[in-house]
Amino acid sequence: MERRAHAMLFPFPCSGHINPTLKLAELLHARGVHVTFVNTEHNHERLRRGAAAAGLRGREGFRFEAVPDGLSEEDRRSPDRTVRLYLSLRRSCGPPLVALARRLAEREGAPPVTCVVLSGLVSFALDAAEEIGVPAFVLWGTSACGFVCTLRLRELRQRGYTPLKDESYLTNGYLDTAIDWIAGIPPVRLGDVSSFVRTLDPQCFALRVEEDEANSCARARGLILNTFEDLEPDVLDALRGEFPRVYTIGPLAAAMHAAQGSGHGGAGPAGLSLWEEDAACMAWLDAQAPGSVLYISFGSLAVLSPEQLAELAWGLAASNRSFLWVVRPGLVAGDRGADALPEGFLAATRGRCFIAAWCAQEQVLRHRAVGGFLTHSGWNSTAESIWAGVPMVCWPGFADQYINSRYTCGEWGVGLRLDEALRREQVAAHFEELMGDTGRAREMRRNAARWKAAAEAATAPGGSSYESLGRLVEELRLGDDDALAAAAAQDGR
Ligand code: UDP
Asked: Measured from the CB, is residue 428 less than 6 Å from ligand 1?
């Protein structure tokens, strides 16, 4: 039998999970691990019809496979489709994963699956790994501080901080309560620990799912994080008290870039965008002055009300500076996109505004014309911005985005925060301050340049993330030995 590690990777089927898991897959493959990347059949089909189709063909030692997600067309159209997807996968996706691993073992030329790597929100795959008889590793897609805060949701609930007593607690200052007992985390506002503390419902489904999913990582052989040691040293120290094997291999975008540039068997082109990327925005950026453009995106899931969209739009219009704004279909409530922009906005910003439905965000952030990023503080976006050395205006709204934003503005000194209730005056003022020439803006740019250099050093040969990835690959090979021992024991029975 060929003694080669074979990782079967299965992310929760949305962009924020697929993108980092695919990067990890490429990095493992570049270090000699055989890879099977598993999409849902629905996404596989969607990708096959789009620009990413060629990437799906795979190559030597890197294959794509698909399993059903169990959703009906009606489920897919429902406003709570993400919840339905979560429940459906949990209910029905374990057996197809086990069957796939067994089928792969019978295939000529490929080693048997020796480990399962899952993203967050698919903890049922831990059971599948157990059934296959191989160790599991979780790539939890948030920062280390995001992960620790999610772990502590259970304690917050047990200590009575959440659920909130009534609606008034959302606005009466209660969310400013200091939380100073989470090991590794500096004193933070209760509201910054997570969006999930805002519930009034003692049985809140989302809160329970988050805390269960995070705590179930303790069952995995190792925890993989898209961060780097210098960025979050205290929280990583504290985390290692609970999780003996934590692999910090980020920023993944930087690690990919470094591997691609290494020239010897570097990682392949990791791109499985579920949306078509607008190429024209790159040409538009080429024509702009260095550092002059604000890039705006709220990731793949956020939904704004038409009122929020209007405050944002008129705030951007008021600044007189240039901006590139990703308004994806579905960004606005009622499944709307750019058609929901307020009347007169495009005319008022003509010549200094580019609206794209989706773009190649990493390239955009690294473009010399981009000097700032207005973001929802999703972790992938934040890590990409840190690597690109671009300061941020943060408007968090969900899950770990609040704590990411707290660290971006507080600990890392590279951001300004917008209030929860968007006001056009504040949008315009923060836009001006971020892109202007005040002492604060210059300091944020200096800090951003420092973090960019630190991210590059971490992912270069000898850096902490580079070495951590090496240790992970070694551990996967140990998993291989375990699997061989188990197979030998079975043969001997
Ligand atoms: N992204 C992109 N093009 C866009 C907007 C976003 O490629 O126009 C990517 C971005 O680079 C990031 C991901 O989508 O990798 C968004 O992930 P994040 O964790 O920031 O937010 P989520 O979508 O999970 O809320």
From this structure: no
Domain ranges of the chain: 6-273+461-492, 280-455
Whole-angstrom CA distances from 38 to 82, 287, 318 are 18, 40, 46
Q: What is the pLDDT of residue 217?
A: 98
Euclidean distance between CA atoms 180 and 184, whole angstroms: 10
Q: Are strands 136-140 and 178-179 parallel, antiparallel or unpaired?
A: unpaired
97-131 confidence digits (pLDDT tens): 999 999 998 888 889 999 999 999 999 999 999 99
Domain spanning 280-455: which superfamily? Answer: Glycogen Phosphorylase B; (3.40.50.2000)
Mean pLDDT of 393-413: 98
d(CA 421, CA 200): 20
Q: In the predicted model, what is the mean pLDDT of residues 429-444?
A: 97
Same fold across 6-273+461-492 and 280-455: yes
pTM score: 0.94
Say if ligand 1 is within 6 A of residue 379 CB.
yes
Tell me, what's the pLDDT at 58? 83
- Cα 55 to ligand 1 centre (Å): 19
Q: For 6-273+461-492, which CATH superfamily applies? A: Glycogen Phosphorylase B; (3.40.50.2000)
Whether the per-residue pLDDT at 269 is higher than 80: the answer is no
H-type helices in 53-177, by residue range? 73-77, 81-92, 94-106, 124-132, 144-151, 153-158
List pLDDT tens digits, range 297-322: 999 989 999 999 999 999 999 999 99
pLDDT score of 266: 54
361, 374, 377, 405: residue to mutate for ligand 1 pocket, most atoms within 8 A of CB: 361
Compute the distance from residue 13 Cα to the ligand 1 centre, in Å: 13
297 CA closest ligand 1 atom index: 5
Determine whether 218 is exposed, middle or buried from the number of CB atoms within 10 Å of its CB (0-12, 13-18, 19+).
Answer: exposed
